[in-house]
Amino acid sequence: MKRLLIISWLTALCFLLLGNVHAWEIPSYIRLDSGTRMWFTVLGGDLVQADRTKIDLGNNLGVKKDQLAWEFCLSARFDNIHVLRFRAEPSTVYEQSKNDSLHAVSDYRLGYDLDFYMTPQILFGTNVDFDFPTVRTRVRNVNLGLITYDYDDNKTRFVPTVGLHGTFYPIVGGISLRPNISARVNWINYEGLEAWDWEAATSVDVPVNRLWTWNVTGGYRYSHLKFKRDIDTVDMNRMGFFIESGVLF
Questions:
Q1: Is residue 44 assigned to a domain?
Q2: Which end of the chain is more exposed for a tag (fewer CB within 10 A), N or C?
Q3: What is the pLDDT of residues 133-177, one digit of tens each?
Q4: How many domains does the chain have?
């Protein structure tokens, strides 16, 4: 059994190291990209009550504001300029409160990019996202003034956003790596629904063989979401640095 495992591992390694053609040199009528992101979030914001009282998510609710959020992404590029994207954040829970309160977020996002301007060094385009965030908050014995708040509210909201994105590929001679700098922003403000999400990142593509490329990305992301639920209005901010690793086929 041990010999079989060693042979299988060596065979896979030889396959991965075959060839000397960068993966991005494959004809671009279809490309697949998948990866995982670690987002070191810092939670902020309020739960706005019907009487305009604000319960601070950190100070009043008492939850731990620093939390690692895991995201999983998949994208497909068609005909060079069209990109379909899917990103999932299954569940990020902010808890460890003394009064058993918590704040949980899950998020599933479908997106489309149109890269209408492309040169060897610059990519620029517009994007549309269809976001389905679920926000659950358990408020336990939070005292503000003469009122004690104790409730559990959970809501999934459809959030469409539009925005822009761009990437710059500097010319670096003498190396096979492909570094780049990118930025992306999405936005909506309509009938009490507020959302904007922006990020800036730098990454490097590491060519492995003619079939795939390894990508490593680091950056900073800021996300704001405000919408009304049955009992309160969530006015939530999450921000922090992220590290992402992916494979480009």
A1: yes
A2: N
A3: 999 999 999 988 888 999 999 999 999 999 999 999 887 665 557
A4: 1
